[in-house]
Amino acid sequence: MPIMPPIKVLLDFVYTQLFVKPPKPTQSFAGRTVIVTGANVGLGLETARYAARLGAAKVIITSRRVDAGERAKQDIYKSEKLSDPTLVEVWQLDLCDYENVQAFAARAEQLPRLDALVCNAGVATSHFKLAQGHETTITTNVISTFLLALLLLPKLRATARETGTLTHLEIVSSLVHFFTDFPERDARPGQLFSDLSDEKKARMDDRYNVSKLLEVFAVRQLAADPELMGARSDTSPYPVVVTAVNPGFCDSALRREFYEGSKITKYALKAFELVMARSSEEGARNLVLAVAPSKADQTWHGQYISEGKVKPPSKFVLSEAGLKQQKRVWEEMAVILDKIQPGVTKNF
């Protein structure tokens, strides 16, 4: 079961949702190429819209269904009064298919440059189902997300080197990583992801929270390894700034499955959203600020970002036990990733 986070976390959540709005991004994206995954609706769509509005040279939006992506593209062109037919492109991406992720990355490697990868696509479900041998939430939100990130990290590094600017890798995480006690951490060595894929052991009401915790762990471990990130020196900035970003509780299609439950649950959720939820545009501000060229500098590297600023993640993440789990999550996921794409975690 999900846990009740500390009262201070809950009070901070209520206060920020009701009274704090992330600032609107104004930094120019001129000349930059941005990929936003899961950009046919909600936060991804609004993030892509901002990138186009702020002058990006190319915005690539992904969707599992190209027709849905094309509708999103036309919506952006209409709202921003765009005329350049090459500015926004729609690429198909299915995070439940590793071969599809690999093909997408191979295509993206051919781009002249890649300045920002916003890994926004994700899933929240209470129904257990396997995809590529792992529970769908873990496959989508964690394994495929970091497979894509690592496959495109060399392109981000090359762009940083060639342009003399910082590039950005953003993993869209969530405050809900505070809301799990992560009992799966008691799995035997090497069995964490196996236990998460065991239907008999699955705690699906807590699974989305766990997936967001795993994302925070992986971002922090990736950022802590200068060899992986390719630091130019011990004192110079990282060429790629990697962040875990919390957009806040927003209007989103992510929770559509939960409307299929009882009427009481459906109406309670709708009432909570009506009072507490930010708009997708407000949530997207966080995502844009975390890849803004003159905003998200090297001090943001490896950090948890919320309300457009660096904030501490959960106390568990920062604890000694959390650090051990962080290393373990990365080591066990690296084995999986290297089986999918040999050397993907070591070839930088």
UniProtKB/TrEMBL annotation:
<dbReference type="InterPro" id="IPR002347">
    <property type="entry name" value="SDR_fam"/>
</dbReference>
<dbReference type="Pfam" id="PF00106">
    <property type="entry name" value="adh_short"/>
</dbReference>
<dbReference type="InterPro" id="IPR036291">
    <property type="entry name" value="NAD(P)-bd_dom_sf"/>
</dbReference>
<protein>
    <recommendedName>
        <fullName>NAD(P)-binding protein</fullName>
    </recommendedName>
</protein>
<keyword id="KW-0560">Oxidoreductase</keyword>
